[in-house]
Structure formats: C-alpha cells, structure tokens
Specification:
Blueprint (H helix, E strand, L loop, with lengths): L2 H15 L12 H14 L3 H8 L3 H18 L10 H15 L4 E11 L18 E8 L5 E9 L4 H6 L2 H8 L8 E2 L7 E2 L2 E3 L10 E2 L11 H12 L1 H13 L11 H19 L4 H4 L7 E3 L2 E3 L14 E2 L9 H16 L10
Parallel strand pairs: 1-6, 6-7
Antiparallel strand pairs: 1-2, 1-10, 2-3, 4-5, 8-9
C-alpha cells in the first residue's frame, strides 16, 4: 500500500474511529489505530507481538482491530457492488469475452473455507466436511480480478452446495431482479438463445444461470475437453483474486482465534481493501503484473501468489457434491461447447 492510499483510507475512516482525549490519558490516534489494524491483516501477528511493536496493550488492540475493520467496510462500501443496470452487466460480459474469450459471462464464482477456532457453545454448528470449524467466503469476481459480490459467514452445517442457495445473490437470480440482459443467440447456425451466466467449478450446480464443467476427464480433443479448458481459463480470475487476497492479507492463511462475527468483519475488510487497492492509481504496489497468472501460447505461467500456497492452513476450497442437472442447462452447455469448436477456436488449443 502506498502512503497516498493509506492517507485516503485514513481520511475515510477517521470520523468513525477517532477517540477524544481525557484528563487522565491521551487517546490512541486514528493513524495508530489504522496502522495496527493493517499490520494485523497483512501479517497475522499476534496481539502480543503487536503490543510491543506499537506500544498499545493487547486488550486495546483486540478491540481496535474489529472497530477499524467495521469502519473500513462502511467507508469502502461502494467498492464492492453488483452492476445495477442491463448496460452495466453487458459491460462485464464484454470484458470477459474480450479478455478470456468466453461469451455471455457475467462473473466467476467460487468459495473458500476460512478456518477458525470452534466458537463457544456452538457444538458442531460451524463444522465443515473436513471436521474443522470454518466460515465460508463466497465471491463473484469480474474479468479484472475485482470482487463484485461477497457473502461471508455461512454456517458450515449447511452443505457446500447449499452455501450459494443461502445468499441474496441466489435469491435475486431466482427472482430475476438483477436486471440481467435477456438471452441472445450466439454466432451459430442453431437457433438457441444463450442466457448470461456465472462461471463456476464442479462444487456448484449446473443451472440456467450457473455454468460448470463437464464431469470426469473428457477425451483429449473432444468438445467437452475444449469446453472445460475454456471455462477453466475464464474462471481463473476468481482463483487469482483469492490467491492475491490471501497472499497480501496473510491473516487469511491460518486459523483465526476469533468468534465468527469478528472473523467475518476481518474477512470482509480484506475484500474491500483488495478492491480499493486494485482500483488505485498505484495498484502495481498492491499487485504487480507477475502476481497474476498469464499465458504464453496457451501454456499457463503461474502467478507469484501460487508460490506460497503450500503453507496455507486455512482458505481451503469448497467440496464438490454430485448433482443432477436440468435438461435445459445441459443443452446450453453443449451448445456453448459446439460454439467454441465451430466459431471461436483458439489456435493453440490443440495442445490441450
């Protein structure tokens, strides 16, 4: 983070976190409060370590961090939001098609388990399929690695497949209240209208608005294999967004010794800071060009964030659950696969 960006954030959150001096002591300044919080998010230093570094008691630090994270979320609320009009959705889809050669994509979705200590008196309420406590970060990402929608804090007694169904995004999709563009015919000889879709992996169900890869390991050169590659290539943006997030904000890399409500605020604060810093004029300080995955003649060049993923003891992917797909969604997926082969082939795709 540049000093300029730090000052911008400080100006936004200071009215919410500033405390008044008293006759007995001087208050901890807003600058110090923001500094200790950003240090905690970036390093996951213990409160004891931060106590000696900033000369602030660990009891005060434990309160300051949550208060400042809450202030960051409120101050940067406009940095994470869904498109509101059909034209805005069309702009997102256009960027996906231009950058990743996938038509009618309005976002890439994925989720991560954020590990935490077992909350008091919760029993197995927050246990997941790997038998540890966690909350889930579910996110929708645009073609430029920015978060458009996040949902944090789903209890892990809900199955991974049910996480998405318990979000406002799912309800709005079901109610058709997001102002998505109407389905349109692609450049094919077939009279099939293709809806605008969210790109997902196998952890999610195939539906009229979520697209997932073909199951199994399709034969090399088959349309299913080509489709899976094109889908994986386009939804790599959400993998990179999560990768950069956990690489910079290392608080996400280890189990949090916090209650779910406090952990949720910390996770949300990192997401809002990610978008703010990605859109900053000095965004290269936050994430340099080599931080993201790139391609050379169709071969993946791993981004720098992948180099330290082996040290993760948190931020695990969602589990996949076999589901029966609707016939209409299956037909749309096959139609897209044929479209990739017949109309928009990639010259180096035969290598895959």
């Amino acid at each position: 983070m540049s000093l300029q960006d730090f000052e911008i954030i400080l100006e936004k959150v200071e009215p919410q976190i500033k405390k008044m001096n008293t006759n007995f002591r001087e208050a901890i300044t807003a600058r110090e409060r923001l500094s200790v919080t950003l240090r905690f998010l970036a390093t996951w230093d213990s409160y004891t370590s931060l106590q000696y570094l900033f000369r602030i008691s660990k009891q005060s630090i434990s309160t300051i961090i949550i208060e400042v994270c809450d202030a960051i979320i409120k101050a940067l609320k406009d940095h994470v939001k869904l498109p509101e009009t059909e034209n805005q959705w069309m702009a997102v889809a256009k960027e996906f098609e231009e950058k990743w050669n996938f038509p009618h994509a309005i976002g890439a979705m994925d989720g991560k388990h954020v590990c935490l200590q077992t909350p008091l008196n919760s029993g197995t309420e927050f246990y997941n399929y790997k038998q540890y406590s966690s909350i889930v970060l579910l996110a929708l990402v645009d073609a430029d690695y920015n978060f458009m929608y996040v949902n944090v804090g789903c209890q892990e007694r809900i199955s991974d497949g049910g996480v998405f169904k318990n979000t406002s995004l799912y309800r709005n999709l079901e109610n058709k209240s997001l102002n998505l563009p109407n389905p349109e015919i692609l450049q094919t000889p077939y009279n099939v209208k293709v809806p605008y879709i969210i790109l997902c992996d196998k952890a999610f169900a195939l539906s009229e608005y979520t697209m997932k890869p073909f199951s199994g390991n399709p034969e090399r050169g088959s349309i299913a294999r080509i489709f899976n590659y094109r889908l994986s290539r386009a939804r790599r943006v959400v993998e990179n967004a999560f990768g950069i997030l956990s690489s910079v904000f290392r608080v996400l890399r280890k189990p949090m010794l916090l209650e779910p409500e406090k952990a949720t605020k910390i996770v949300l604060a990192t997401v809002y800071l990610h978008n703010f810093l990605r859109k900053s004029r000095l965004s290269n300080i936050y994430a340099q060009a080599n931080a993201f995955d790139s391609e050379q003649r169709g071969e993946l060049v791993p981004g720098a964030w992948r180099q330290d993923q082996q040290q993760l003891t948190s931020f695990f992917p969602l589990d996949s659950v076999p589901r029966r797909s609707p016939n209409t969604a299956t037909h749309i997926r096959l139609h897209l696969a044929e479209h990739f082969v017949n109309n928009v082939p990639l010259e180096w795709l035969n290598n895959h």
